[in-house]
Each structure stands twice: as C-alpha cells, then as structure tokens.
C-alpha cells in the first residue's frame, strides 16, 4: 500500500502527509505506530515523513497554551500606523516586548497589527502608555479589544 504515497513531497504535500498532519493535529502525542496502522504504512515511513516535514519547517509539534487558563484574561489587537523609514526599528522594538504575542505586517492604513495578551485592563493600559507609546515612529494606534472568542481553530485542513 505504501507505493501510492511515493509521489514527491514538495512543493505540495501528498495524501500521506495530510493524513499524518491531521492525526497529529488531534493528538501530537499519538504514537507513530498508531498513525501507521491507521494510514496503512510502516511506522518507519511515518517517522521519516514527520522528520522530513519538521526539517523543512512545514510541521512543528508544540504545546498550545490556552491564554485565559494561563491568566491572560485580556486580549487585544492593536493596529499601528508607522513612519515608513521607522518600520524596521518599530518591529525590532515590538519583538522585545513580551506582551506582543504576534506582530504582522499588513497593507492599508495601518502597517502593523499586533496581538497583545495581558492579565488585566490595568496591565493593558500600562502596556499602551509605558511601552507602546514610547516607541519612536508610531504615528497612530487603534486598540481593538477581544470581547469573546467565537472560533479558535489551529487545524490545517486540506
């Protein structure tokens, strides 16, 4: 049965790769022997494919922390308008700030979007006043508070 999975892995993943990814998304600790059994291939094939996808940066097996359960009860998206010649400097400063979980370059009025996770609205205020407002090159800020997460999905679907 393994012959049907012998197509080139890259640039596009084949059916076996997708099967492996789907299995590991549901349970990253699932034994390779179980995945192999479910997909009708050998454990060695699964092990090699997982290693290859990790080496290529396609797959990472990581633990996902629920921010609310970890005490980070306030989450906000912050849009930042930045002077064109200061963009690299602003990004470098944001990378040093632990409250900024995600920094994204975007098109439109705001060049950067960041996701901020903090314990309280007081902490959010302190972050905005004492850290973000002190970064040279930011010309405008728009804070969008997350009121309720309606969908959060990390699954890769084919």
Automatic annotation (TrEMBL):
Gene3D superfamilies: 3.30.70.920, Winged helix-like DNA-binding domain superfamily/Winged helix DNA-binding domain. Pfam families: AsnC_trans_reg (PF01037), HTH_AsnC-type (PF13404). It comes from the Bacteria. Residues 13-73 form the HTH asnC-type domain. InterPro entries: AsnC-type_HTH_dom (IPR000485), Dimeric_a/b-barrel (IPR011008), HTH-Siroheme_Decarb (IPR050684), Tscrpt_reg_AsnC-like (IPR019888), Tscrpt_reg_AsnC/Lrp_C (IPR019887), Tscrpt_reg_HTH_AsnC-type_CS (IPR019885), WH-like_DNA-bd_sf (IPR036388), WH_DNA-bd_sf (IPR036390). SMART domains: HTH_ASNC. The keyword Hydrolase does not apply. Keywords: DNA-binding, Transcription, Transcription regulation. This is Lrp/AsnC family transcriptional regulator for asnA, asnC and gidA. The lineage of its organism: Bacteria, Bacillati, Bacillota, Bacilli, Bacillales.
């Amino acid at each position: 049965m393994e012959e049907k999975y012998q197509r080139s892995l890259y640039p596009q993943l084949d059916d076996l790769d997708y099967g492996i990814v789907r299995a590991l998304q549901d349970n990253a600790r699932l034994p390779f022997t179980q995945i192999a059994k479910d997909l009708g291939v050998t454990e060695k094939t699964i092990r090699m494919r997982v290693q290859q996808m990790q080496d290529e940066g396609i797959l990472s097996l990581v633990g996902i922390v629920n921010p609310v359960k970890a005490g980070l009860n306030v989450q906000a998206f912050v849009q930042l308008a930045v002077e064109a010649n200061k963009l690299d400097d602003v990004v470098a400063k944001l990378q040093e700030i632990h409250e900024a979980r995600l920094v994204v370059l975007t098109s439109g009025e705001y060049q950067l979007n960041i996701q901020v996770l903090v314990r309280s609205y007081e902490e959010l205020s302190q972050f905005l006043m004492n850290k973000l407002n002190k970064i040279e090159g930011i010309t405008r800020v728009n804070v969008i508070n997350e009121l309720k997460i309606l969908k959060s999905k990390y699954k890769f679907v084919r």
